[in-house]
Amino acid sequence: MAENGDEKLIAVARHIAKTLGRTETMTDDILQIFSTFDGRFSREKLSSDNNTRVEEGDPRNGYGVLDLTLKTLDRQISQYVSSDQPIWSNLNDSSEFLDAIDELLNTIRDWEPISIENKPIASFLDRADDLLQQAMFRLEDEFRLLIEKSSESFDLNRLNRSDSVGDHHNSFSSDSEDEDGFNNEDRIPVAHPVSDYDIVIDALPSGVIADLHEIAKRMVLAGFEKECAHVYSSCRRDFLEESISRLGLQRLSIEEVQKMPWSELEDEIERWMKGAQVALKILFPSERRICDRIFFGLSAAADLSFMEVCRGSTIQLLNFADAVAIGSRSPERLFKVLDVYETLRDLMPEFEAVFNDQYCVVLRNEAATIWKRLGEAIRGIFMELENLIRRDPAKAAVPGGGLHPITRYVMNYLRAACGSRSTLEQVFEDNGSDYRNIDGTNDRPLSSTSSLSVQITWIMELLESNLEAKSKMYKDAALSSVFLMNNGRYIVQKVKDSELASLLGEDWIRKHLGKVRQCHVNYQRSSWSKVLAVLKLDSSSLTPSAAPRLLREKLKMFTQYFDEICRSQSAWVVADEQLRMELRISVAGNLSPAYRNFLGRFQTVPELARNSDKYIRYSVEDIEARVNELFKGTGVSAGGRK
């Protein structure tokens, strides 16, 4: 009996030494201390191999020690597991509960190697695993309770600058009890829009974060990493999603975005741009910071938790951008699509920095994919602009040869688009040499790169071809020239006064100014050549007897032609004031000297000179006055001398 008692005593001492000794050296020291009190505790006996197989029922096997340990831990842990009060409401209780869990984990770790070949030990460890699972379930509840309770009581107005300087009052706020005592305990504190992104949110007090870290550490050690990440993310996800909702962002499906009226979608894009900035620069980094502190030293758990917290909100933001990218290619949508593209592009460094782990790589890649898809949408919109120009019908000529609506639309569109020149350059350079049109044709100029200048040049060529076709609707060649002159001058002016000048280049501008001048020459030739021809005098035919009749006929013919031209061209339109003056000066410069010379010869014939008022309807000054009434688009021209 005494021998059996000694064996049990030695087994207990051996277990105590192994439990208290966190390292092999510490265990040896404890064994040495035991041996100084009693010879039975000699180091050789106490440190004998625990893995030696013994028969079941042998009093030397130490099962009783393990059984005693588990019963003790069961009593300690069960009292907390079954408690109706939060364990972390009392510092001593939480400390003792964690100590008991630590001892249980150490016991399982110490005895697990033996259990592989020892069924009785394995059965004891099954009991230990059941107890550990109960403890983990309670830790999970405590973890959740700490987060929820702290979130309810934390004031989100308490923001910290990253440089710890300054104060951001009212940038963020929480919904707390009002003066009437309304209870907001079910509400989640949320973020409000801000303009300063140099801030972080400490949404949980440091003490709570320390407690959560201790709980997370035990749950991960116990193999409950996913459960810990899940309970953390389920709590923090609500905060994050409600915060984003407070920024004005609706949770919309891709189909809902695509069905939204354009005016509403424009407003939604504005809200999305602001919300995405706050999410990527404030909310997500703050969540990353909290995760890293709670799961310090547990990087896999931190990454998994952060991904689960942010995944839903991130997908919500990206889905909206994706819906914009795959939506209508209508040209008027370009500028808002550019806004979304630029916002996502500028946030890519934040995506790279915040979502930099293995769990978040899919979110990071999705952001990059949608950003590229937005670039494709922008290129598609330009292709649709090309098709719009091609398909613009020549239904009716513009009255008076004025500016065609397609010219005004395209030039103002391109000027506005070039306000985002650097972005468009990036978009078209990314496109490489793919010039395939929406309708499947490939008739645009080939180039090794898809630069913006090539794209703009091609659109200008399409516009010019369209205008050339429309000019052929005018039966009057002079009016056709005025139409091309008006539109050509407008195009050149819009190019010179914008970024288009540097994109198209000086050679392009000189070439098209030359085209406008040629239209001017064509107008002069078509309108005034026959008038000037009438005023020409052949001395050989002006014999004294034939001169009176011939000069009267020429003057009558000139007056007729001049009246017809003035009557029709007073209704023509030249909108550009400088061009209008240039045309008038050019006409008068050719017509006035010829008419003055004709009148001088007319006055040399005595028969005609005596009755000049009867024959001469217009003086030179009258001619110039009527020329100055041309191109006003009024349809009225002042009369000359009667």
UniProtKB/TrEMBL annotation:
It comes from the Eukaryota. The keyword Signal does not apply. Residues 271-629 form the Exocyst complex subunit Exo70 C-terminal domain. Keywords: Exocytosis, Protein transport, Transport. Gene3D superfamilies: Exocyst complex component Exo70 (1.20.1280.170). Residues 165-187 are annotated as: Disordered. Coiled coil: none annotated. It holds the Pfam family Exo70_N. One of its GO terms (molecular function) is phosphatidylinositol-4,5-bisphosphate binding. GO terms for cellular component: exocyst. One of its GO terms (biological process) is protein transport. Component of the exocyst complex. Belongs to the EXO70 family. This is Exocyst subunit Exo70 family protein.
